[in-house]
Amino acid sequence: MLSTTLATGCGWIDKAAAKDTKVVVYSAGPATSVAIDGGEAVELGAGKFQSFAVGPGTHELVFDGSRKVSVTLEAFDRWVVPAAADQCFFSIDVSSSHYSADGKNRLGGPDITKRQQQSEPFKFPPQHYLTEKELPAEVSSGTLLYMLRSLPCDELDRLEAGLDGSPTSEPAPPADPTLARLVEFSAAIGCDAPEGVAKAWCVAAGAWTHVDDAKLPLPDTGKSYVGLRVEIPADGELASVLDGAKLSLLAIRPEAAAGFGTLSGVNPENDDERQELDAAMASVRAVFTGDAKAVELRDGIGAYVDTLPASAATSLTATERGWTIGDGEAELRAAGPLVVALEHDGAGNLALSFHLPR
């Protein structure tokens, strides 16, 4: 008989366990900071939460520089660690709001249920999910599914009393349709708790959806960048948009107070070029899954990318936070370590790309 017990010490099991053994932290007030195992503190705004991959073992979490909580996890566990004593948690029943009798259509509104106060770590409840992206596409009739959330207890009291409406009601969309679509895109790909390469897309969209004074500086000399690009249609679902990501190449050549740029893709002409393209995209993704520290390109495509700065011939024009290329259909901005680009066609269709320096 085959044993179903997973033992650490096997390379692929250890790697999977390190990635999928997690603690989940919910903000306990206007803002909550958490540092795990002596690492850098991460701040969560009001109503926010984040999942952290920590691996099996005992871990210490320090909240707001003072409250210390230890939790011991086995491989592939997921535990919630309260950020404050007597923190209020509740479940949102999405069984009727997200699934009809045939398990596909969204009907009705979600209900608040299973309220609890916790001071000590507890295992993430069964049949509960963090984000809508995690929800199954279809369920059997009668299946109960929930989203786990946390709010300050007094706010939850008011919500349950019906004074403020449902905690899952969406804010009014931004008046700018481009910004509104990017907000929808961010929600669809799970930017409330992003993982893997989705983090890069959330950071890229955040260059427009979040208030930030960061302005994209031009490099001192010609520079090329490699990344990924997705098309965001004006209408339709967005959860699968990332599946259509393609390689994106950016080059900037400064001159005087501005310079020149080029933003392009690559159309492979044969199987060898297609393999180089696939390898380049895999290398970009590997940076964001923690499997690589930098993008590596094979000789053929690498040599081509290195020629792009010298051939960049489209003028750059300064904007409040970045630069437009040519007639303004594409804007470049900074987003953390990334250079991101947003293209629009005037009909509501967008293309978003992020780039790492070559």
Automatic annotation (TrEMBL):
- The protein in question is named Uncharacterized protein
* Source taxon at top rank: Bacteria
